[in-house]
Specification:
The structure holds two protein chains of two kinds. Chain A is of the alpha+beta class. Helices cover 33% and strands 24% of the residues of chain A. In chain A, strand 21 and strand 22 form a beta hairpin. Chain B is mainly alpha-helical. In chain B, 72% of the residues lie in helices and 3% in strands. Chain B has a three-stranded antiparallel sheet. Chain B is globular. The chains are: A alpha+beta, B mainly alpha. Chains A and B meet through helix 1, helix 2 and strand 6 of A and helix 3, helix 8, helix 11, helix 13 and helix 14 of B.
Chain lengths: 715, 378
Amino acid sequence: MDIKNEVLYRVYFLLFGLVVPVSIILMYKTVVIASVEGERWRNQGRDNYLEYRTVEADRGNILAADGSLLATSIPYFNLYFDPHAPSEEDFKKNLDTLAHCLATYVLDGYTVGGARAYLEGLRAGGDRHVVLKRKVSFAEKKFIEEFPLFRFGRFRGGFIAEKASERKRPFGLLAQRTIGYVRENAKPVGLEGQYDRVLGGEPGQNLMICVDPAADLWMPVDDLTLIEPVSGSDVVTTIDIDIQDIAEEALLRAVNHHDAEWGSAVVMEVETGAIKAIANLGRTDEGWWETYNYAVGAAVEPGSTFKAATIMALLEDGMVKLDDSISIEHGRTTFFGEVMEDASPYSPKLDTIRVRDAFEISSNVGIAKMVQEHFGAKTSTDNGPARFIQRLKDFSLNMPTGIEIGGEANPYIKEAFSSRDEWSGTTLPWMAIGYEMKISPLQLLTFYNSIAGGGRMMKPFLVSEIQRFGETVETFRPTVIDRRIASDRTIARVQELLESVVENERGTAYKLRSGRYRFAGKTGTAQVNYSKGNRGRRIGGYRASFVGYFPVERPIYSCIVVINRPRRGGFYGSDVAGPVFREIADNIFVSKPELHRPINTGPRPALVAENMPGFSIGGAQDIKTVLSYLDIPHYGSPSTELAVLRPRSDSLVMEMRSLPDNLVPNVVGLGLRDAVYVLENRGLKVEVEGFGKVSRQSILPGTRARGQNIRLYLR
Amino acid sequence: MSQSTRLYAELRGDRTIWAIIAVLAIFSVLIVYSSTGTLAYRTLAGNTEAILIKHFIIVAGGLFLTYLAHLTHYMKYSRWAPVLLITSVPLLLYTVFFGADINDARRWIEVPFVGITFQTSDFAKLALIIYVAREISSKQDYIKDFNSAFLPIILPVLIICGLIAPADLSSAILLFGACVAMMFVGRVAIQYIVLLLLLGIVVFAMLVLLGEFFPEFIRSETWVNRMRDFVEKPDGGYQVQQAKIAMANGGWFGLGPGNSIQRNYLPSPYSDFIYAILVEEYGILFGFLLIALYALLFFRATRLVTKSPKAFGAMLVIGLSISLVLQAFINIAVSVHLVPVTGVTLPMISMGGTSILFTCISFGIILSVSKYIESVSD
């Protein structure tokens, strides 16, 4: 029993002398730390390693009217390598294969041995954030991520991929300046700049916890304090990517051909004022670029294109009628000793002509004399020049258009007799022909657009909608600046004049006319950098322009083309800018079937077999669908995939057309795409001549197909 | 018969100890799940479920081992003891020289072909405790003698602890302490016990010195740094401060399961500082409960000692339970900044394959003894 008791005493000593007291001490310490000193430790822990980190929002897109992306953010990755993250063993084991992969795919100009030495050098060095490659795509990142060693990830493999995004303009140059940009340390430009708030969204905030201070690895904390970034909205523009392409292309060819300083072309929708295209090209050392938005920002002397405003003022004041006679003095006169000459080749032969003729041939003398005669006098009761200026203001020619993008130039119209504006006797006649004033191409186009629109002036605009995730959140309606800038009669007269510029043989734009549609407009050839010296005027170049609208019957688009200081191939508006207008109009006309007049507007003729689409070939099911939709009587259900239509007197019959596997099939009647598909599936090589449908094939149907060349004649 | 009554009938032995195991196992799964957030974030892209499942399987496997171990008659362990002890020596030697480096410490060996790592000290610990229990019980008649009793008992203890110490000093000290406690309960003379404690301190000092010359094998630099932190910094080093912040965050009732913040800052929240995470998520009261569970385990062990008809059973129960409780208390003491940072795990709770498995076997052996006692007293 003694032994037993000794053991028990000792066990109880352990229990009550060691285990129980230690338990109590541990509990006591827990309470001290967690509760008594709790406040202090909690404070130390609170702001230690938690941090609000900004989470960048996705920037919205800029879209063309049809939804094409004009500007979008493309994510890319910058790849880095931490040479000290891998263990010695992993590093050694994978060094050779990694060097091989890097030399082959990533590091340009490195041999495998060189890459190996480079990696070893990095491992010996101190940098833990070595650039491998910048701006790689997601696909490329995924590929590189799978390299030996890298595939172990960030901590074991040392592979670091940092995401960033880049603004891309999928259409490149197209409307580049109008789309614009937002960059650090630069003035924001264009729509990107103007809609920065809308596109940019709201950056979010995320409570992040530092998981590993050494590696700067942060983990988001699931927390109610998270502020989700709000992605930017999409800005839908009015720009029609087809028209923009047409305009940019035509302008580029012209500025190139004429070696101009800059050129600008704008297409506007007459009814709404929506800008469908806006192209600006300036000469740089590296070719032609959208370096400046000349259409919006370049207020320049318009020259003859302004005569439409002048004549409109005269007509509106009832001063002249189109058939009144005026003397143009063979195209040369003087105002207060200052010589004014016509540029028209007809002028020297002409003296007394009608007002409409003066406009057609763009007679400076004729227009200026009329203005001088009717607005030149200043009496105690009537201030003629002030009336003229007021007319121009009535046409809103002194106001900026208020287009959405920044940097719009203000028009400059002198005040009558203002000494600040250096008003002189010659000011009025020269203003009449578009000098001593400044106006931007867009502002002038807005004026012409209102002529095309029957006198209603629309505010030009570029942005039609704001969208979020494809849902419209805000719509911008077209805005009317002035419901009627002049009386209907006056507008009709001016329209008539603008048409005659193109339609009449002596008109300055006569050679530009088109047989397929009619357009109206006015040429302009303004002198630039001129100076009046002792030996007459010195001219530092010309600015060719054309502004007009089409089709005249029901104007849909108006367009202005301005080409500054062409150095080659002529300088007249009709030679330099006019062809660009014509090219733009032609292409729009071709690409927009809605502009075409229906050939036959009469009642639909009774359907007879002759008009039926006989001998067409196509998918049997497709033909059936089409015929049913068009409500054309038809019957027959061929067992083959293809069917041929045969006309009957009152209906169509679908017949089978089989395509045997190893034989050359009969492809006559098929479209090229179907024919090529069918023939190449049988191993034949197809050559093509002509266009349309297959009318003849060089190898007879039923010949064994052995990979021959077959020639198709299309008609 | 319902499932639970069948299970109850199946599990023989001290029901309280069974309950303790069950509660600890549940704690283990819960806390490991929430404390592995950063581990999963780093290695498995946030896939904590994978770690949870792995840990759950280990715990379940451990409980099965407990069941098997408690079925085995405890006297069999006495017979196996010498073989187990001798096997552990080459294993430990191999570990010291060729073991796998994990967290800068060479404590593991890789089992060939299977690919799992195995902490040899866990095995050696179990083997040594069984062996010492056997020696003490067989030498009860002349236990106070130095040459015939004390020396034969202490020599294997010194050898095994000496082999464990280079890589894992704290485990060695713990094992040494457990053996000393067994000898104390086993009626070894008090003066020898005191001598042993002095010897331990001398050996520790020598190891530190040796480490200066052979840093490859002895991690004395780490120990010195940890000791210095403990002595010189009243608030504790970085890790201890983070643990304190964790407990302070928890307060009396905790932040709630899975809401730990500090798991992100504690280097091994799923093992060394798991107590701090427990308090952070479940509060001080659960901390008390955990400590009480271990104390209760030892209390039940003392009950078994009083009832045990055979000395071997008593010694075995005391050795295994004191080893578990000491380890648990040291682990908790690290978190509450009572001792320097050691790196011992919280038995049954911390993540770590072999640690849990051997702890479960230890429980199984204790239960085997209690089962025998029950059957005798019935």
